Amino acid sequence: MILPGFVLFLKILSLIVASWLLVHLLAVLGVFLAFAYPLWWFLAPHQTPCLLCRVRESGEQCPFCRQTVRKSGDLNPKSFRSTVLNAFLILVLSLFSFGLVFAESRLLFRLGFPPTPKTASFIIPPKGQYRLGEIFPMKIEIAGIKTPVNAIQADLGFDPQKLEVVDISTADSFATIFIQKEINNEVGYARLTGGLPNPGFFDEQGLFGTVFFQTKNPGIVQIEFLPSSMVLANDGRGSNILKDLAAAPYLILPEPISEEESELQTALIEPGVLGEETEETQLKFYEEGKILGEKIPSEIIKEEKPGLSKFFLDLLEKVDRFILSFWGNLFK
To answer: CA 11 to CA 319: how far, in whole Å?
Structure first.
């Protein structure tokens, strides 16, 4: 036995689906139908339906035809005036449907459909070898930027037994605002977060910052970008367009640097040499020289598995994009 509530649910669902189909069909074909309607009436007047006669009850007055509706009789326009009014009604409904489709596309865009392509990558020197006690710079560069970006978070992980971060420089960075600079040499973690205002940074490749490491013990050590790293696009919804995480091995030789070289290394890390005295256009909201010592973030960026709702929303977006592209190309 089918429950009455279930039957009502199916009727409502069918009405919603039919209304959605009608709206999208009118958004594409409604304008053509409105202009073809008078010709249709002229060629086949008895096969041309009057819209208001169809929806009126028998005995009611049709304002277009100015006649009483009789369901047993012809429900076609009775005059050229009625034909023009029917065509105008179709045109209004078509424009209204197009507006609904446009609003639906904007809503889907806010929900992340279509997703902004992931094209950006962090790039670091692929290899290198250094001696004990040596300080070396590692530039954090971003490549593959196909969409302007305005926020970057670079999280680095390394073996704290073999390396330590002495500082992070923002000299020559394309970013103009920095809100985080965190270093934790106990767990092997460093973060630099910053960006720039609208319209963002749009170039094939750019320097975001430079991390200065100092070697501690000999051996092979890997420096890698953590999954919490982000490159956010200036697309109105902050899409993360980082497509992969770079990593590179470095060899630390057992030979220590000399005393003279150690003095030069000490001079290298003096304030201003690393570039902390940057251009006046850079705004910093972290405390200069403070090692924050935060723990490694536990958040991991994972790709959501496509579900039924995502498939449905993606289909809606493709339909809306087809309709908007159709009219956009037509009026170009």
So the answer is: 24
